[in-house]
Design brief:
By secondary structure, the protein is an alpha/beta fold. It is about 40% helix and about 30% strand. The protein has one domain: Ribonuclease H-like superfamily/Ribonuclease H (Nucleotidyltransferase, domain 5, 2-Layer Sandwich), CATH 3.30.420. The mean pLDDT is about 95.
Length: about 150
């Protein structure tokens, strides 16, 4: 299996509000940067969208090290929460609806293809790839802010 590093971040101006995500994929000395956004979204949706977009770039099953500053994404994957939500009809343990089930469905399908190791890092703490992804995410969110004004 090819070994790929993925770094992602999401940003939102207001929650909800204009948002963006950025991702870096690194394989065998090559790096690819991708980004996107939405005019009306949440920070968690942008965090998920970055991971989904990055994993969707992979053309074959890979061994992935995913680095993110999103506890929401990292914990839901590592602790099995998202899988439990899906098994329970997108309901959490407290029986309330799980948010972002459309994105979690896509992400769980992608996670079933790849061997993903999740690495949580503290955001805005000088991690070079995280800072770069944050700049891309903010730039994407700003594209939508200008359209709103």
């Amino acid at each position: 299996m090819k070994k790929v590093e993925i770094f992602t971040d999401g940003a939102c101006s207001g929650n909800p509000g204009p948002g963006g995500w950025g991702a870096i994929l690194r394989y065998n000395g090559h790096e690819k940067r991708i980004s996107g956004g939405a005019p009306e979204t949440t920070n968690n949706r942008m965090e998920l969208s970055g991971v989904i977009a990055a994993l969707s770039q992979l053309k074959e099953p890979c061994e992935v090290i995913l680095t993110s500053d999103s506890r929401y994404v990292c914990d839901a994957i590592q602790k099995g929460w998202a899988e439990s939500w899906r098994k329970n009809g997108w309901r959490k343990a407290d029986k309330k609806p799980a948010l972002n089930s459309d994105l979690w469905e896509k992400l769980l399908d992608l996670l079933s293809v790849h061997h993903v190791t999740v690495n949580w890092i503290k955001g805005h703490a000088g991690h070079p790839e995280n800072e770069c992804c944050d700049r891309m995410a903010v730039a994407e969110s700003q594209k939508f802010q200008k359209k709103v004004q």
